[in-house]
């Protein structure tokens, strides 16, 4: 089985097995927020939906004790391989969201989850390569669950960093995190041209009112939430 290498700015070289989400614009945006957070040695960090493990490695390079989870065995293998190649220890676990870490609590939790709105029929029959972005009819199947789990997995004064598209409702995420007892806000955003996934389902997205008739860019945001 072959792998493909990518080298986003400041993330180093990472490899992604076929079907594993490779670092893209949302990864770089979340990486910028992670660097601004000031990760220090001794912090406990959790990367949920780790994919290639690029963000977990970024935290590990700054001295953090890092755990990473993904429901995909291919992603787990990829993240473990990238950590081994880089010479950093990342505890990579296969499983659903925070489930693999049990009752452990963290100083910082980050996630670049699936968030792409997906037609119902396609969501039910997702190919393996689409699992990393297909997220249900409104794109919130995984984001909603992260919002529900975040408070319980954070230590007091712990921080959640979550990147998502405006296509799946930024306001809904802020409302859910607030209801869960976290203080939250959008701390960064970026506008990127539509990629192949949005382009392929653009007519459907416009029919749902999620993309404007003249819109040709996607807004990505980073939400920061704290357990005060």
Describe the fold and architecture.
With 228 residues, the chain is an alpha/beta fold. Helices cover 32% and strands 27% of the residues. Strand 3 (44-48), helix 2 (54-61) and strand 4 form a beta-alpha-beta unit. Helix 1 packs parallel to helix 2 (54-61). The longest helix is centred in the middle third of the chain and has 14 residues, at 73-86.
Structural key phrases:
228 residues; alpha/beta; Rossmann fold; seven-stranded mixed β-sheet; two-stranded antiparallel ribbon; 9 strands; 27% strand; globular
Determine the CATH topology: Rossmann fold
Question: What composes the largest sheet?
Answer: 7 strands, mixed
Distance separating the two termini: 46 Å
Domains, number: 1
Unreliable stretches (pLDDT < 50, length at least 5) are none
Q: Name the shape in a single word.
A: globular
CATH class placement:
Alpha Beta
Number of helices: 8
Order of helices and strands: EEHEHEHEEHHEHEHHE
CATH architecture: 3-Layer(aba) Sandwich
Strand order of the largest sheet: 5-4-3-6-7-9-8
Beta-strand percentage? 25-35%
Summarize the structure.
The chain has 8 helices and 9 strands. It is an alpha/beta fold and 228 residues long.
Could you outline the blueprint of secondary structure elements for this entry?
Blueprint: E1 4-6, E2 14-16, H1 25-37, E3 44-48, H2 54-61, E4 65-70, H3 73-86, E5 90-94, E6 106-111, H4 120-124, H5 141-153, E7 154-165, H6 170-179, E8 183-193, H7 196-200, H8 202-207, E9 217-226
Parallel strand pairs: 3-4, 3-6, 4-5, 6-7
Antiparallel strand pairs: 1-2, 7-9, 8-9
Helix pairs in contact: 1-2
């Amino acid at each position: 089985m072959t792998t493909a290498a990518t080298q986003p700015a400041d993330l180093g070289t990472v490899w992604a097995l076929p079907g594993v989400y490779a670092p893209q614009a949302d990864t770089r945006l979340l990486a910028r927020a992670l660097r601004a957070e000031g990760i220090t040695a001794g912090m406990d960090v959790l990367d949920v939906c780790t994919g290639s493990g690029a963000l977990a490695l970024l935290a590990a390079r700054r001295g953090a004790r890092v755990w990473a989870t993904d429901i995909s065995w291919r992603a787990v293998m990829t993240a473990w391989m990238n950590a081994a190649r880089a010479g950093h220890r990342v505890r990579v676990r296969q499983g659903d969201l925070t489930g693999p870490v049990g009752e452990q609590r963290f100083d910082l939790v980050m996630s670049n989850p699936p968030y792409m709105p997906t037609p119902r029929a396609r969501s039910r029959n997702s190919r393996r390569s689409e699992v990393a972005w297909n997220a249900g009819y409104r794109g919130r199947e995984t984001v909603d669950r992260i919002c529900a789990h975040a408070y319980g997995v954070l230590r007091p004064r712990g921080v959640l960093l979550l990147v998502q598209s405006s296509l799946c409702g930024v306001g809904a995420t802020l409302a859910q995190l607030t209801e869960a007892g976290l203080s939250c806000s959008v701390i960064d955003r970026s506008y990127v041209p539509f990629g192949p996934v949005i382009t392929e389902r653009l007519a459907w997205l416009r029919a749902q009112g999620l993309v404007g008739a003249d819109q040709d860019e996607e807004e990505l945001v980073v939400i920061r939430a704290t357990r005060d």
